[in-house]
Every structure is written in structure tokens, then in C-alpha cells.
Amino acid sequence: MDTQLIYEVPTAKDYVSLRLRSGMGSKDLERSQIALQNSLFTISIYDKDKLIAFGRIVGDGGITYVVSDIMVDENYRRKGLADLIMKELDNYFDKNTYEDSYICLIANNPADLLYSKHKFEYLPENKCGMLRNQKSSDDNF
């Protein structure tokens, strides 16, 4: 494996391809390009010219930050790549955020085990996390 870390936004085509190879599902190519260009920070890992792992931070750059799209190609798992991505994101947070910054993520199990090694904790009992239902109101009847 000939890997290298790149701190540049990958192409939308590579991003969507990795989403599929990591089991995260497809996304629209045009909207993916917009999303990638609006990232605060990205880390990509390539094996030669193939994107095999990726992670990014989105947010306002002042108060709120969201860890997003941590993914590793299924054929490259269990090699420490997700942990390496998280270490790079940790470095960004250490240099660019403050004690009162709001840093969050939504994780699928068992990825929460990875994130707990990088200062992420479950919400306390007096707080809750929520997702907005994006289905049209017609779908609710």
C-alpha cells in the first residue's frame, strides 16, 4: 500500500465513489461538489491515485463545527486509517477552536467507539440531539 495524506478537496466523483465503497451510499455529484467546496477542512488518504479514506469538518469557522463523512474503503479497513483521519481533525480543532466552541457529529454504531477515543462523548441527560425530518409533509399522512 502506497498511501499519502492530502489536505485538498477530492473531486466529487472520487468522493461519491468512496461513499459507495465505504457503505455510506450515493449522493448527487453536483451537490457533492458544492458540499466539498464549502468544507472548512478536509483530509484525504490515497493509495496511489485511488481515494481510500476521507474526513471533513464543516461549520461556520467561529463557533459551530461538525465532523462529517468519515469513511474508509471496505478493502482498506482495520489498518488505522479512520484513526489517522480523526487525529488530523483533532489537530485542526486544537489549532482553530476554543473551549466554548460547539463541535459535534452524528455517528453510526460501531463508529462511536472510534469517536470516543477522540474526546467525543454522549450528550448529557439534560440535552438531546435531533435530526430534521426532510420528508415532505405529504409523506407524513
TrEMBL record:
Pfam families on file:
Acetyltransf_7
Q: Which InterPro entries match?
A: Acetyltransferase_Butenolide, Acyl_CoA_acyltransferase, GNAT_dom
Gene3D superfamilies named in the record: 3.40.630.30
* Superkingdom of this protein's organism: Bacteria
CDD domains reported in the protein's UniProt record: NAT_SF (cd04301)
Which stretches make up the N-acetyltransferase domain?
A: 1-141
Q: What is the name listed in the Swiss-Prot or TrEMBL entry for this protein?
A: N-acetyltransferase domain-containing protein
According to its UniProt entry, this protein's organism is Terrisporobacter mayombei
